[in-house]
Amino acid sequence: MPAFDSYFTLASVTGTEVLVLASADGVETLNATASQIAGAPADSTPSGEFYANEGGKISRYGDRIFVGAASDYPALNTRDVPKQDWLSDIMAGTSIGPWAMQNAQSASLSRFGTSAFVAGSRTSDAQSAAEMLGYVPSSIGVASWGVADETQNPTTTTAYAYYGEAWRLAGVNYQPSFAMELEAVNLGGSASGVSTPFHPNCGGGTYGIQLGAGGGQTTGTSDAEAGVVFVSNPNAWKTGILFGNTAIAGTNGTDGGYGSAVSMARNQGIEWRTPETREGVEGIDCGAMLFSTVDISQQGQRIQFSDDGLLITNMRGELLFSISPNASPTNTLNIQAGSGPAAAGLYVQEGPNGSANLGLYPAAGGELQISSPVSNAGGAMPATAAGGFLHININGHDYRIALLSSEQAGG
User: Looking at the predicted structure, is the pLDDT value of residue 290 above 50?
Assistant: First the structure.
C-alpha cells in the first residue's frame, strides 16, 4: 500500500470520495463517502477555548445546531434532563421552566460572556453584487419571520418575528438589564435633510427604530393595529416612555433650551379611553383628546407650564392667556389665585403697561349671572354712595353702579 502522503492532493471534495474509517481500537473498519460523514451527527466535548487557533471548536447535533455552551444541552424532548446548559439551568428555577433550548432548532450560548451571535451586512456588497443577483438587495443584519398560518379557531399558537427577555437575578443591583438596546451611530456628520412628520426619512438620517406596516406588499394587506403596545405579563411598567434629560438635542433638561421629544402631524393627537364596554369591547370610547388643527405655524399656540403658572402664548412667545401672577398683562386675561388677603379672580391692569377695560360679551338675549347673598332687602337707598360709582358700559350705554359700604347696605 502506498504511503499516505504519496497520493495526489485533490483540489476540492465533491462528496463521492471513499474514506476508510476504523474504530478506536482498530478492530473494525468501514468504508464511507465524504458526504455520508458530513451528514452524520457529531458530538464533541467542549474544548475550553474560545479562539480556533487555541483549540476552540463548533459542536452540533445533526439537524439541530448547538454552538458554544449550547452544546451542553442533550437535545432531548423533555425539559427535565440531567445535564443542562447554563441558560436551561437558570430557567429551571422559574415557574415556566427551561423551554428555550428544548424548542430551539439552533442555538448559540456564549461560554465566555461574549456576544452569542453576531450578524452583519454591507450596502457596498449589495451594490457590487447587483449583476450577480439581478437586483440590489437591502442589507439586513438579521432578518426573522414569525408566520401565523394556523387557521384553527380557537388556537394557542402565536407568531413572534422576534422575542427577547432581559433577566435580572437576585442580588444584581449595580448595572441595569435591557431587553433590547438599539444604537444609532452617525459617523457622517449632520444629515442632508430634516426629518418631519410629513417627511420622516431624510437623506443621511440615522434612526433608532422605524416601525413600518405592510412589509412592502402592494396588494392583499390591511392596516396594522398598533405601532407600540405595552402590556403586563404579568408585571407592569413603572413608566411607559421615558426620555433621559440629555437624550433630546436642544436641552439638557435644566437649561433654557427646548427639544422636541414627540413630533406629530396635524390632526394626530392623544386620546384617553374610558373603561366603558360597548359592543363587547372595553375602552372603545374616547373620553378626552388633545390634538391640533392649526394650518399655519404663525397662527399656532404654545402651552407652557412655568413656575407657579400656566401660560398660553402664540408662536412668537407673546402671552395670550395665563393662570399665574403677571406683571404686564397688556391685552391678556390673567386668572390669578388669591394670596393672603387677596381674592382669586380675573385681573386686568390699568396704566401704560396694562389694559384698563375688562369686557364680558354675552350673546343677544343672554344675561350675566352673579350669585351673591342679598342683604338689607327692602331697606331705604342711602342718599350718597360711600364708595362712589362703578362705571360700566352695556350695549354702548354708560351706567353707574352705586358702591355702598357695608354699613349703608345693612350688613
Answer: yes
Cα atoms found within 13 Å of the Cα of residue 251, Cβ hemisphere only: 12
In this prediction the pTM is 0.70
Helix, strand, coil abundance in the chain, percent, nearest 5: 10, 20, 70
The DSSP 8-state label assigned to residue 296 in this structure reads: S
Alpha-carbon distance of 337 to 352, in angstroms, equals: 24
Mention every residue, 6+ apart, whose C-beta is less than 8 A from residue 390.
Answer: 400, 401, 403
391: closest CA among 383, 400, 402, 379? 400
The string of pLDDT tens digits covering residues 74-119 is 888 787 777 689 999 988 888 888 889 888 888 999 999 999 999 9
Please name the residues in contact with 168: beta carbons below 8 A apart, sequence gap of 6 or more: 177
Secondary structure of residue 88 in the 3-state scheme: helix
Q: In 10 A of CB 320, how many CB atoms?
A: 13
Closest by CA position to 107, among listed 99, 95, 117: 117
